[in-house]
């Protein structure tokens, strides 16, 4: 997650971002590459090392995986940290050309134990298709615990940027396009599979630290399982559209080139086929920012501004009004699923993450917000479902 975290002090997040990945030359290099043609190496880089010790391995990888770089002298390379988050470390690797110009790529190193919460095969399968559709950085190469991508010259958005009505409108239009991308394979939504998988792992943890264990033992996983099942049953009755969803559209995964007015979505680690309303709701939850101020969740007017730009504007006004009402109810019910998902995610991180952060506290924060919003969201959905509707 973003700039740089999925937590109130910025220490935790789904991923570290900032620079995205790739210059014009690198994009041209990979424009014609299919998923099968992307270079691969089995070697891994020790992400626990400080950058100076890591640099020779990074340079070697780039020489092998970036077309045209294999014969460039190592002295021409420079490496800087773009950002570091919970699930990856993002590096900008630059080389000086003979003409004095600079080319750059991004090296993304996966953090330890991230396979417990991220399906890397699913991510790597999707990236080439998303790149071909114009989303994110181009994939240049894959290695044991990371990827090399093109470098995006743009700034990372802030939560305040996301709340700006003009930028929100552009995010909505881009998200509509993103949801049209066809990723080969099963189109079955993965949200509930992922949540139940997280729940099973979270319920089987044991902490060495006594204080952590005491806090953990206060959690009723039977209650959470019942809540998840009831929420799933309710949402299943809505028959929400299934799309290829980003599932982590926080500010750190949104970049903007102000000169070109170009908006970028980056980091598709959590991408999967899921529900339209979930992806939008998860994005709205991220209005809370690093301080997790959920009072910043958009009001109905702000949501409708987003929906008008997401939905087809050429629909008759009455039909468009109905579409927006459906999306409003759908989104604000899936809001609950987002809190459950990241609460369980945090519990797993509490056990396996090397980051010094109170993930247990984050669990209680997200689950507490779920319980706070449960009654109004359930009531909204049940009221909507009880109304007779034109078919």
Automatic annotation (TrEMBL):
Region (Disordered) residue spans: 1-20
EC number: 2.7.1.82
CDD domains with a match to the protein in the record: ETNK_euk
Pathway membership, UniProt: Phospholipid metabolism; phosphatidylethanolamine biosynthesis; phosphatidylethanolamine from ethanolamine: step 1/3
Any Pfam family matching the protein: Choline_kinase
Example of a GO biological process term: phosphatidylethanolamine biosynthetic process
MF annotations from Gene Ontology: ethanolamine kinase activity
Cellular component terms (Gene Ontology): cytoplasm; plasma membrane
InterPro entries: Kinase-like_dom_sf (IPR011009)
Family: Belongs to the choline/ethanolamine kinase family.
UniProt-listed PANTHER family: CHOLINE/ETHANOALAMINE KINASE (PTHR22603), ETHANOLAMINE KINASE (PTHR22603:SF66)
Annotated protein name in UniProt: ethanolamine kinase
Species per Swiss-Prot/TrEMBL record: Sorghum bicolor
